[in-house]
Amino acid sequence: MGLATGDPDPETIATEIENRHEHIDSIEGVKISETESNGETVRTKTKMIQIPGTVSKQVITESENDQFGAEGVATLTRDGVTRTYDPEDNTVTRYDLGSDRPSGITGGAVDADQIEQILNDSDVSYEGTDTVADRDVHVITLDRTANQPTSTVTAYVDQEFWYPLRTEMTFESPDGEETTVVSYFETVEFNGNVSADEVTLDVPADATVEEFDGPDTQQFDSAAALREAAPFDIGAPELGDEYRFERGNEMIMNGTASYTLTYTSSDTTIRHTVSNQSDYELDGESVDLNGTAGYLQEYGESTTVLWEEDDYRHTIGGNANRETIVTAATTLANDDS
Question: pTM to 2 decimals?
Answer without folding.
Answer: 0.63
